[in-house]
Amino acid sequence: MVVAARVHGDPPETLPHVCMIYYSSSYPGAGPFWHHIYFPFLATKLLAPSMMMQHLLPVAIAMIGWLDGTQAFAVAPRPPDGDYASPTGWDVAYSTGREAADWLLPYDAIRDELLTSLTGLEEDPILECGCGTSPLASRLVADGFRKVVACDASRVAIEAASSLFGEVAGLSFVHSDARSLKAFPDGAFAAVIDKGTLDAVCSGEGFDFEGGRVARALCRVLRPTGRWLCVSLMPPQVVLPMMRRDGEWALEHQRLGDGLHLYRGLRATV
Q1: 3-state DSSP call for residue 221?
Q2: Which residues contact 206 (CB under 8 A, 6 or more apart)?
Q3: Which of 11-20, 79-88, 99-108, 186-195 has the lowest mean pLDDT?
Q4: What is the fold, at CATH topology level, of the domain defined by 107-267?
Q5: DSSP assignment, residue 247?
Q6: What are phi and psi of 37, to 5 degrees?
Q7: C-alpha closest to that of 255 among 9, 6, 3, 4
Q8: Closest Cα partner for 52 from 174, 235, 252?
Q9: What DSSP element (H or E) covers 49?
Q10: From CA 193, how far away is CA 22, in angstroms rounded?
Q11: In contact, 52 and 200? CB cutoff 8 Å
Q12: Farthest CA pair distance, the chain
């Protein structure tokens, strides 16, 4: 039996913010046997997102890569004690897990969405934010994007990723935290891609404050009309208000399969 973690984004009216973690017999298809765990995200600051990340997400990370008894993709290591928001926790995780591995989904599962959203940016700088040791950035280069940068808050992860993909022409690795992206100047990128990093940043207390820091950093490093693409476990009732920055960008949401969410941001022209 295969286990996968899912998030569903249509909460009942009686629960203004609800995240449901599903355990299914298949991923990414809907299976006949579901178990639902509901967490209300009451309109104020609560620990529900961090509870989800610290206690249930490890199950997702451990199992989401398995499909019909086979390893669909290598699953990224997890920090000890569910410390997903801390670079130190990721340093520990990647000190032993130095092989190529992914978070939430492999590149091929979102390749079409990425290529469609990044059309026309083949010669422009693109950032993968929170790369870990994922092959995503190298796959973008293989698909024709010539100026790809991958960053992570963990120095150990950057060292591991550089050793795995450092020979790829057109790809570079930089140590930088998604909450500031201080390694990069204003307007540095035509697009930023995030697959699970926002989830990790928001796994601790003060999740909405930390998410707001990410939004501010993204708006700073994106050039006018720049694009943000984010794959997340978190539902739109949490992400859209948290990432809102009036006058700086426009945000959109769509379901990604049965469970995950894809968020898009379009930077304002001025």
Answers
A1: helix
A2: 45
A3: 11-20
A4: Rossmann fold (3.40.50)
A5: T
A6: -120, 120
A7: 9
A8: 235
A9: helix 48-51
A10: 25
A11: no
A12: 53
